[in-house]
Amino acid sequence: MILLVKGCALPASNLVMKTFAIFLLAISVFGQIATETGKQSLPVDQENARKARAIVDRGIQALGGQAYVNVKDVTEEGKNFNFHSGRPVGAGTIYWRFYKLPDKERVEFTKQRDVVDVFTGDKAYEITFRGVREPAADDRMSSMLGPTWPDYFRRRRYSLDWVLRRWLNEPGIALFYEGQSVADGKSVDQVSIMNTRNEAVTLFFDLETHLPIKKSYSWRDPTDKQRNTEEEIYASYREADGIMTPFTLTRFYNGDMSGQRFITSLKYNQGTDDTLFQPKPLTRK
After folding, report:
1. Least confident window among 17-21, 114-118, 193-197
2. According to CATH, what is the number of the domain 61-277?
3. Is the entire prediction scored with pTM above 0.90?
4. Residue 240: is its pLDDT beyond 80?
5. Nearest Cα to 119, choosing from 107, 131, 105?
6. Helix segments in 64-175, DSSP class H
7. Which of 117, 205, 113, 213 is nearest to 156 (CA)?
8. What is the dihedral of CA 266, 271, 272, 275, to 10 degrees?
């Protein structure tokens, strides 16, 4: 038998033949290993995604299932506290909040309810005794919804309501189970959800109640390019109109407490009229 090595004909000794046979066998085994590894990786990923989705679905059921998913509007009263560098600012502000899914919101402040923020779609308005105005992006907000107006739209986009009611129905959504950890002193399952816009949110579900008790996400500031992390803690869950609702919400910004909201009264599906979200001048009482 003759072997061709770089174009030269060489006699095939037993040693050469054995070496060549071992080489072919190694290629065959390596190919089988690579093939089997490729076959195994996909099921592992699918199992992880399946577990993540099961945890999220169980959390939605704990919140109220279809009653939670099908909420049309929210009417809420409470008191809000703002913080700067983890320190409280002022004595807190009472508020009245009206939210009509998916993107209409009105928040009234002061005992006279004469300072109002209105959001509808991608528009924002501030209403006071001076009239109605569309604020600039860098204007400070009067409400607990964000220090500036772009903050509000970012927080709405990453809100728990939007993630569980909108993101999960989008094509191309990806879910990742990241194991068990501790959040707000409770043992939790940790799940990250990513959409096709490269936005990601991590949710933490209580192992006992299955309710979401924490949310975390990061974003890059378009001005200084620094990455910031915002977190929310959900506590004091109570049933309201068949829906489990956190009556205490605490917000953190880069590790420092930035706001806290205490709900005193809340109702769902009150048939809130769209006219409430029109930017109209206040009516004197």
Report:
1. 17-21
2. 2.50.20.10
3. no
4. yes
5. 105
6. 66-69, 149-157, 160-165
7. 117
8. -170
How far lies 228's CA from each of 78, 165, 225, 252, 253, in Å? 28, 25, 9, 11, 7
Among the residue ranges 35-39, 66-70, 263-267, the one predicted with the least confidence is 35-39
Q: CA nearest 77: which of 235, 251, 284, 240?
A: 240
* Residues forming beta bridges with residue 106, ordered by sequence position: 98, 118
Name the residue ranges covered by the structural domains of the chain.
61-277
> Residue ranges of the alpha helices (H) in 90-222?
149-157, 160-165
User: What are the start-end ranges of the E strands in the chain?
Assistant: 2-5, 8-11, 73-84, 87-100, 104-109, 115-120, 123-128, 131-133, 174-183, 186-194, 200-206, 212-220, 227-240, 243-253, 256-268
Q: Tell me the mean pLDDT in the region 203-228.
A: 95
Tell me how far apart the alpha carbons of residues 92 and 18 are, in angstroms, rounded to a whole number.
Answer: 84
Distance between CA atoms of 193 and 252, rounded to whole angstroms?
20
